[in-house]
From TrEMBL:
Converts N-acetylmannosamine-6-phosphate (ManNAc-6-P) to N-acetylglucosamine-6-phosphate (GlcNAc-6-P). It comes from Microterricola viridarii. One of its GO terms (molecular function) is N-acylglucosamine-6-phosphate 2-epimerase activity. InterPro entries: Aldolase_TIM, NanE, RibuloseP-bd_barrel. Belongs to the NanE family. The gene is nanE. Its EC number is 5.1.3.9. PANTHER family: N-ACETYLMANNOSAMINE-6-PHOSPHATE 2-EPIMERASE-RELATED. This is Putative N-acetylmannosamine-6-phosphate 2-epimerase. GO terms for biological process: carbohydrate metabolic process; N-acetylmannosamine catabolic process; N-acetylneuraminate catabolic process. Pathway: Amino-sugar metabolism; N-acetylneuraminate degradation; D-fructose 6-phosphate from N-acetylneuraminate: step 3/5. Keywords: Carbohydrate metabolism, Isomerase. It is an enzyme of class 5 (isomerase).
């Protein structure tokens, strides 16, 4: 399955709480539009969204479950990961940092249990180079740069963290999925040139409020 992602675009279909598009049907429609546009995969958050996208979109799906908004909140426990897979995700994205997990399991124990109990693949969302190396050692099938600049371990770059992708791609044996602050087709292409196996784009494709604000601010400026 991972080979189907090689060199392609994964579209992250997510809406923030309180927004008009915070509805599984809306996210499924956005995912369907992404298919028409040429995406090779979908990333989605929340069990209801994952279920509906699984039923309506033929592409493989990376699912996650956000619990809270700080610390370890991306599919933070084994229980959450198993629920995401049961909802229809072929790959589960989990917090792939070296921080303590709420259920007391290590990252390696969590990944091993997911593999043994479901056979699903695991994408470890890392925040730094050391996170990425540790995630591979823990058994992750994919390492993503999703949390780069958000854990306090490394500075947040203004745009995409190209250097992190270069370093991880040069050292890891598992695929590196570039994700985070990729706002233009040129940046996405540059991520592949930096060594990324695949590129995940969310806000610039699926978040109308933010896209509108970019244009509005540019005109005001």
């Amino acid at each position: 399955m991972i080979e189907t992602f090689h060199g392609g675009l994964i579209v992250s279909c997510q809406a923030y709480p309180g927004e008009p598009l915070r509805d599984p049907r809306a996210m499924a429609q956005i995912a369907q539009s992404a298919v028409i546009g040429g995406a090779v995969g979908i990333r989605a958050q929340g069990l209801d969204d994952i279920r509906m996208i699984h039923e309506s979109v033929p592409l493989p799906q990376i699912g996650l479950w956000k619990v809270g908004s700080g610390g370890v909140f991306i599919t933070p426990t084994l229980e959450h990961a198993l629920a995401v897979i049961a909802a229809g995700a072929e790959i589960v994205a989990i917090d792939g940092t070296r921080r303590p997990r709420p259920d007391g399991l290590s990252l390696a124990e969590t990944i091993a249990a997911i593999h043994e109990q479901t056979g699903a693949l695991v994408m470890a969302d890392a925040g730094s180079f050391d996170d990425g190396m540790a995630a591979q050692d823990a058994g992750a099938d994919i390492v993503g740069t999703t949390l780069a600049g958000y854990t306090g371990e490394a500075p947040k770059t203004v745009g995409p963290d190209f250097e992190l992708v270069r370093r991880l791609s040069a050292r890891l044996d598992v695929p590196v999925f570039a994700e985070g602050r990729i706002h233009t087709p040129a940046q996405a292409k540059a991520m592949l040139e930096a060594g990324a196996y695949s590129v995940v784009v969310g806000t610039a494709i699926t978040h109308p409020a933010t896209i509108t604000s970019w244009f509005a601010e540019a005109l005001r400026g």
